[in-house]
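tool_call: predict_structure(chain=1)
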Amino acid sequence: MIRFIISRILQSIGVMLAVGLIAFALFTYVGDPVNNMLGPSASTDDRARLRTELGLDDPFLVQYARFIGRAVQGDFGLSYQYARPVIDIVAERLPATAELSLVAVFLALLVGIPMGIYAGIRPRSWLSKLFMSVSLIGVSLPTFFTGIVLIVLFAIVLRWLPPFGRGDVVMLGWWSTGLLSWSGLKSILLPSVTLSLFQMTLIMRLVRSEMLEIVRTDYIRFAQARGLTSRAIYFRHALKNTLVPVITITGLQMGSIIAFAVITETVFQWPGLGLLFIQALNFGDIPVMAAYLVFVSLMFVAINLFVDILYFVVDPRLRSGWT
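tool_result:
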């Protein structure tokens, strides 16, 4: 098992180095941070002096090596836009994105799993057909369109929920949370529903397909022949095996939710990492853009590494292969 874990860790390190190289190479040529920081009226000497102070005159490989060396230590340099350490800005925006992602995952599981179970148990009922139709709409509609429709309906027409912002937050040490205030709870509903809609439909269709496959297996038929109740058959035996791939997909989708939060946070002006990335992109803030992409990639790599290790523990075929 140690060999397996070391191999996956080395592969993860290689992936992170490649992502860092791509991110730094792409964002180096996006905009001119010197022009954004000094303005068009700055003199040539002032521009040259600032480029030297920022290290933008150094060769590309030197800048990349400096970026990797600092990133390993959690230092992504100073933001060109805010003139503050990037790690401090990310720490301020991280709670908003983390709460939004966790609430979106919770809603997707809370709604998607029961809908998938019912659609798998009663596939020919009118409610199951309605669930499948709604799932097609949820998969097909783009996130920004869904967010705009929800804003128009619940914030402008009905005036039940705020259209943007995070509401009042409560500080718990360095962590800021809006889940402990009424305005924060109302503010997170629309963006979390928008972000969870695609994941909800994906989980529902996955649970439905797994349930349809499992209810036709021999051990389910044997349980029915023993006279067990439908609740015991479906929820004690079938659901337990159905949730194995669901847990895997949900874990992998956590990284996707953080990545997709860019659009949702922009539509609802949610003060998280996604909105920070869009603002940095418009300004040409290379350190912030690179830090965001490295952070999202790290989430994907960490979750995949955890899933690989979990598979190694659960599946004896992998252990025998590595032995």
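agent: Residues 17 and 290 are 12 Å apart (CA to CA). Proceeding to next step.
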